[in-house]
Amino acid sequence: MDSNQPILMRSRSSVGGKVRGFFQFETSVKVICLIIIFGYFLSYFETVADALIVTPGYFMPPLVQIWTAFTFCFVEKHLWEVLVDIATVALCGKLIEPLWGSLEMMTYFAVTNFGVVILTTTYYLFLYACTKNPLILFEVHIYGLAGYIAAVCVAVHQIMPDHLIARTPIGNFTNRNIPLTLFLVAVFLWLLGLLEGRYPTMFLAGIITSWIYLRFIQRHRNGSRGDYSENFAFVRFFPIVLQPFVSILVNPIYYTCRRLGIIKHTPVPPATSNTLPLSSVSISMGGVDPYDMERRRQIALKALNERLSKATDSSRSKALPKSFPQSTIKSSAPAISINIPTTSSAASTSHESLIKFPEGEQNKNQLP
Known about the structure:
The protein has 368 residues and is mainly α. It has twelve helices and four strands; from the N terminus they run H-H-H-H-H-H-H-H-E-E-H-H-H-H-E-E.
């Protein structure tokens, strides 16, 4: 019984640490997580769940259940989906909320989920118009945070696009590859019958909605809107070999929206002439938040420090041979001092030299 006490104490301390870690999140993150858990328990009541989730046939006249556009994202019917949703919201609270703030994170949550339900419902209505299958209108249900998971992946791609996750035989796997990879995984699992068809549909809608918001709409603290950097272009979600073909498809849509005034492009200001004094030169990067730049700088410094520390440790281990003693032998007996008078041949003045002996040999070295 006594031998199990350390294990129980460690388990209790780990559980207590996780509970304390949960309460360290911002209020917005905790509220979303608690509502998701509550929505999962409500899913066991079929009548209540049907009143909270989106059904395409009931989302249009004459039965316009408009409130479901704001409640569908909090309902989940599978425990693993609840765990994935909570992990995603927690990741957003740790990585994105310190950079954007609580208000912007909640705005992003609301905008992306509303855009997901609009795009997904429109897709199923279009599918019904093509197939005339009434089951699409009344048997398909839209719920969960699949679209918001995609939105978080897109936000991570915007913040740290070149962060290396793994090295593969076909190239480096970075944050910019996460959205498309997860979408393809969702489609593959749907083909195997392990996921419902609404999951990859909502995931793709989340990618499109979040990219449009971050690219053209999001207002930054410096007063600018959107992120027009080349690294965040839509073609960057795809492999390099596919980017020219994707550009052929998306560029006409982009230019059409610009001509119609739907999208207002903010051009990057021209570079300042280098003939001006250095104190008067200011570099302005359109669509780039200085807080975002500072965060990327901190991430780069952290990675550099880790590499330098690893290189220093490896160089030290290589510099010392394996046979090099790691510690010196110290005598256990304290040393004592004996004053011995000596004479110098060059001078008649006597001097004293200090000789130290171990305490155990004191009697052997006494002078006669």
